[in-house]
TrEMBL record, chains A, B:
It comes from the Bacteria. Keywords: GTP-binding, Isomerase, Nucleotide-binding, Nucleotidyltransferase, Transferase. The keyword Cytoplasm does not apply. The keyword GTP-binding applies. GO terms for molecular function: GTP binding; isomerase activity; mannose-1-phosphate guanylyltransferase (GTP) activity. It holds the Pfam family NTP_transferase. The lineage of its organism: Bacteria, Pseudomonadati, Pseudomonadota, Betaproteobacteria, Neisseriales. Residues 367-478 form the Mannose-6-phosphate isomerase type II C-terminal domain. This is mannose-1-phosphate guanylyltransferase. It catalyses: alpha-D-mannose 1-phosphate + GTP + H(+) = GDP-alpha-D-mannose + diphosphate.
């Protein structure tokens, strides 16, 4: 038993493409970024849930390098308490064992004496009962402080065949139980038995352990994972900014880590496993059916987000942003609308949305890759119209941010400021552009756009010309290291 | 028997809101304008069908005043033979008796000696077998030349309960039969009997008669209709342009015409009625189900127009312009997509789409009134984006056309030419704007936009300001009689 309480560091594991949530989830807009009815994303909810735990001073986030900007933006937008952010950036997803090994090894390397506790939380879960969550975390932290590798086991609420189960064993004091065994996704009969029996719990994918304990268990049961991760970390320098620390895992060495889950690598092999039984009002928002549950149903069982008109329709889920959706004489449909793609699915088959997404991936369909809106280091833009002769974008530039100094061979660009103030560099000249003013950049002219103000700059860009591909850009200077040429 | 063959004038009756075809049909975009798979509208198909009849030199069209511009544009686009166009414009729909009475009286007034034959054709029908149609018209014209009021009776292909029927009587030579009686929409059992019996035909709503014969029958059976129509015509001057004649029916007097169909007013009362039995591959495109039949079905019975991805879905009809529609595990749905409204309906209930449209009408919902695209005398425009601070339109100005000389109090306008050449009047100054160039009109400045060129002028307009309503416009001069103020 130890006397001093170690620091508890929530570590949000923000992965998962969420292809079953297409067309809202895309390759460039994975599941943690999906927004719910209250306009908070799943990632923001996970961050706030972690931030509200007692004693939390910093939050680690493990995510894909591509998602760095949006992840920071989303966390900053809700980080009222000013918690320190520590990002570990994966060049590609390698499953949970390398991710959590990297988090533990990174901490242990920096703070060997402190041996903090890590609370691994998937970014794409919802938890309705935060008090129960805090109580469960407290128990898990005590067990983890004693060297246990703790998994949170959720009391089943239905005979679910899509999750792994944990059979709980003997009690460990008042806080938890030994793990008798891990059980793969069962068939329906077995799931019914588990639900009735009371000894089986859903494997939540949430864990708690000390950095040292995880590394010791990895050293014993998955030494190849630990070695690969340590080798990668040795070639992955960290950088510290005002409000966050970044450590990008070196691509080639991270690619050598075995693709294995923490369950296989450690939990099923270690003698230190413990399970904390809990009831959290938990949901994994795995598909449109579980997401629909987050919206209230009307008298006909319909759940609607957006403008809809229903006639003799029942038990439907409708999500629209901006367009009117009219439904007539239909039951049990999920209708999910986005500006460039629409899904109409039987709600009983929402698991198969993944197969649709795979077919789009095979076609390399734009509606699989990205939305019409894209995040950039300097802000974001949305394509409003795209035609053979012109493309129109709404561009938002953050205060103080600049696009690169650039030139296009084939298109002229027309900028109209609809909110805020722009500083436009035109060849050698610089000038301010105020709200309701516009300017014109002919093809071949070097130009740059900045926001010198204190509020967002919103402008409409109309590109016109014979070729409008995103690859017609020559960058001379860039604040974000993207330039290919010197001026 | 007469010896000289009178002229046959097709008279297209272009009415019908087509609310069962919402969201493609709108108040400002009625059914005759709906385009089919070959990108021809129903009106264009009706025009071409009429134009291809032997001996046709001109085509009359009876339509709503609001539809004048688009009707002319659509007919001109397919009028390769340069037929003369004669438009009778109704200020409001008053059913078929006043419309056809006006057409007959208008012709008789102009050409009393010629007594031409009128062939009344609804604009919203499809006819697959044009040879059979031409043969039936030939028979009808012979009967009409003998003073008969002829209705085309379609051999039933199913036990339809949605149409009126005609019971055919004794033969009139080889061309037609007497009308034994007209039958209201029957119940299903009666319709089955009609289908089996062979004496009953669908009332097609297509008629043929001489102008004088119709006026005589009206004088006898519906003198109030004829009197009201003649009174209206006396106050409705006609005008002749290069390619068309226009006669706008005077609003107040036309409003006094009884709202009655030609069936009630004449056909069910006259002794001159005759029916020509025909089989034309006819469809009235009454709802999405009948429109769907115009598209070929794949092996699963799905009929698709646009970009769609289907998984285990059957007998669906999908119409999309631009967006991807993915369907999963659904059967027998009609999914009709437009930029601002989407319909998802059980195909068996397409008749009830009308009820949805009525509810939108009650709400005065924009998606009931108009599309994001609008026709104007000078061309057309489409709203690409609409936000609190800006509105973006794609504007197409016809060669030689001008918008009004105008001024806005609250918005500035930015114009970017993406195709063609614009002449822009800016206060006192005029200047040419070429492709890929732009200009800026500040709020309060008098301006005008013209297309001096020989091809369409396409430009992107970005409006920005605090108030962007269409009513913020002061017109000083207008080529189309819309100005409210002198400069």
């Amino acid at each position: 038993m130890q006397t001093q309480i170690p620091e508890l560091i929530p570590c949000i594991v923000s992965g998962g493409a969420g292809t079953r949530l297409w067309p809202v989830s895309r390759q460039a807009f994975p599941k943690p970024f999906i927004r719910l009815a209250d306009d908070q994303s799943l990632l923001q909810k996970a961050f706030l849930r972690a931030a509200r735990l007692p004693g939390v001073k910093r939050v680690m986030i493990i995510t894909n390098q591509q998602a760095q900007l949006r992840t920071l933006d989303e966390c900053r937008a809700v980080n009222a308490g000013g918690l320190a952010l520590e990002l570990l950036l994966e060049p590609e997803g390698r499953n949970t064992a390398p991710a959590l090994a990297a988090a533990a090894a990174d901490l242990l390397e920096r703070e060997p004496a402190a041996n903090p506790l890590l609370l691994a939380l998937p970014a794409d879960h919802l938890i309705a009962d935060e008090a129960a969550f805090a109580a469960a975390v407290e128990k898990a932290a005590r067990l983890a402080g004693d060297g246990r590798i703790v998994v949170f086991g959720l009391k089943p609420s239905r005979a679910e065949t899509g999750f792994g189960y944990i059979e709980a064993g003997a009690a460990i004091g008042a806080d938890g139980q030994e793990v008798a065994r891990f059980v793969e996704k069962p068939d329906h009969a077995a799931a019914e038995g588990y639900l009735a029996g009371g000894r089986h719990l859903w494997n939540s994918g949430m864990f708690c352990f000390s950095a040292a304990a995880l590394c010791e268990e990895l050293a014993e049961h998955a030494p190849d994972v630990l070695a690969a991760v340590r080798d990668c970390l040795a070639h992955s320098p960290a950088s510290q900014s005002a409000d966050h620390r970044l450590r990008a895992l070196e691509r080639e060495r991270f690619g050598r880590c075995p693709d294995i889950s923490i369950d296989y690598a450690v939990m099923e092999r270690t003698r230190a496993a413990a399970v904390v039984r809990c009831e959290l009002g938990w949901s994994d928002i795995g598909n449109w059916d579980s997401l629909a549950e987050q919206f209230p149903a009307d008298a006909d069982g319909n759940r609607v987000s957006g403008d809809a008109l229903l006639r003799d329709s029942h038990d439907c889920f409708i999500q629209s942003r901006g367009r009117l959706i009219a439904m007539l004489g239909v039951d049990n449909l999920a209708v999910v609308d986005t500006p460039d793609a629409l899904l109409v699915a039987d709600r009983g088959r929402s698991q198969e949305v993944r197969e649709l997404a795979r077919r789009l991936q095979d076609q390399n369909h734009p509606a699989w890759r990205l939305h019409l809106s894209s995040q950039r280091p300097w802000g974001h833009y949305t394509v409003l119209a795209d035609s053979e002769r012109y493309k129109i974008k709404r561009i938002v530039v953050k205060p103080g941010a600049s696009l690169s100094l650039q030139m296009h061979h084939h298109r002229s660009e027309h900028w109209i400021v609809v909110s805020g103030t722009a500083m436009v560099t035109h060849g050698q000249e610089e000038r301010l552009l105020h709200t309701n003013e516009s300017t014109f950049i002919p093809a071949g002219e070097t130009h740059r756009l900045s926001n010198p103000g204190l509020i967002d700059l919103v402008l409409i860009e109309v590109q016109s010309g014979e070729y409008l591909g995103e690859d017609d850009i020559v960058r001379f200077a860039d604040d974000y290291g993207r330039s290919e040429a010197a001026p």
